[in-house]
Specification:
- By secondary structure, the chain is of the alpha/beta class.
- The chain has 14 helices and 11 strands.
- The strands form 2 sheets. Strands 3-2-4-7-1-8-11-10-9 form a 9-stranded mixed β-sheet, with helices on both faces.
Length: 382
Amino acid sequence: MKDVAVIGIGMTQFGELWGKSIKDIFVEAATKAIKNAGVDHIDSMYVGSMSSGLFVGQEHLGAILADYLGQTPIPSTRVESACASGGAAFRAAYFEVASGASDIVLAGGVEKMTDGADVTDALATAADQEYEVYQGVTFPGLYAMIANAHMNQYGTTREQLAAIAVKNHHNGANNPNAQFRSPVTLDQVMNSTLVADPLRLLDCSPVSDGGAAVILCSIDVAKKLSKNYVKVKGTAQASDTIALHSRKSFTTLNSVVTAAQKAYKMAGVTPKDINFAEVHDCFTIAEAVVYEDLGFCDKGCGGPAAEEGRTAIDGETPLNTSGGLKSKGHPVGATGIAQIIELYEQLTGQAGKRQVKNAHIGLAQNMGGSGASCVINILEAK
């Protein structure tokens, strides 16, 4: 297997992009990535998208996006793993380069969620239709069950969950591509509209449009191009039951635990070696649970860690320096690739006011549904 590098990045503004189609959004991000990488061609492309058929009525996404990007006849494949689609697309691109099948591959993600589709129904297709959705459960409801269980089992408080939202909005205020660039206070989070008890509006990631893309190649090709690259040090994927009630515990995401163990082993690192991480904070409770399941602390400390500033940019393990899904936005298919872009910017010293000091190894954790799928990628500065 060849060593693989990321040599170029590009993304659109995340938010409500009323004047742009899904094709416009993807082409903008992909063109920026190709230009940023300085390559004159790509050999293949993978596109993460959760539900373009329901959101905008467009399937066969791989081919149509290659067409509008002007890249036919290269192979172009759409990758779907619910909200982990972007992370899975990156992983597929990694293996294509690592295997030697292609020299230069684009991994992208895109979603157009605001064109009139019933977003709640579309997102609910990532849950168990018979045992969860038919009974009226939505994703805020599922994560509210996780939050209540975590509160009962570990004493996690409402204030601790709110501290996660405050931190991520603080970080997002310094991200020019973030959907929400306004800081929020603890009181604003705790007094925002109740969505699914105990989760309130500012505990939830928004509905977003957006695209993101990165260019991968072998380390040898990156050196020939004299590119400022970062190395892909580890990648892993795992799954769990889709239905929450089928799990032994509501407060542990086994797909995250399993994927993390495999990614750490491949990378030859432990959680203590990770300098910062982008994690899937679709709801504030998700960040707390994932922080624990990645092994950054014992079970039950995810809430206190945010409250005590341990996950702030200047904390011991900075989380979601980009603003996370909460502030940066969550165009579901693009989220996993946008996480890779934040890792690239941090590891190449291009994160501006969000820069983590001495960032050398970063981790991206992207998951689908209530954790039925999880992809973890670990990148290292050259």
